[in-house]
Design a protein that fits this description.
The chain is an alpha+beta fold. It is 49% helix and 28% strand.
């Protein structure tokens, strides 16, 4: 009986240790995580998500905030179609990433995914294939997307 209790306690302690280890590894900032976060924010028109993952040199270009300009254009297109911006939001499914290059301060990540609106995912319908190579830099200890990040195809 004591043997079973000791075995159970050791398995429980090992499980807790592994859970803490996996959670801490999942919270680490990596180029892959930055590319995925930015791509999801981009197709979902999430301003905060895009700004948190875009490098400072790309936020304002020629005195124009590129995130605001992108969202303004998306809202205009939605309005022209008679919709709100929420209707235009898409999600990425089957996201796959490969690190093409990585140093301490720079990285290149190849991302492929399927882009669909949540309604099309539920009811079926056409989807778009997304394939992009992201240039990333480490800025203030966080990986950020640089080098023309607003080139993902429009849905």
């Amino acid at each position: 009986m004591a043997n079973k209790i000791v075995s159970f306690a050791l398995v429980l302690i090992l499980g807790i240790f592994l859970q803490v280890l996996f959670v801490s590894a999942d919270m680490r900032d990596t180029p892959i995580r930055a590319a995925r976060d930015f791509a999801r924010a981009y197709v979902g028109y999430d301003k905060g998500g895009m700004i948190s993952r875009i490098c400072s040199e790309n936020v304002v270009v020629d005195d124009v905030n590129v995130v605001d300009a992108y969202l303004y254009e998306a809202r205009r297109k939605a309005h022209d179609l008679g919709y709100s911006l929420n209707y235009m939001k898409d999600c990425l499914y089957h996201v796959e990433t490969d690190v093409l290059y990585k140093s301490r301060t720079e990285a290149q990540v190849h991302l492929t995914a399927t882009r669909k609106s949540p309604l099309r995912q539920f009811f079926g319908g056409a989807s778009d294939h997304v394939e992009e190579i992201f240039e990333l830099v480490k800025e203030d200890g966080k990986w950020k997307v640089c080098g023309g990040p607003f080139s993902l195809p429009e849905a």
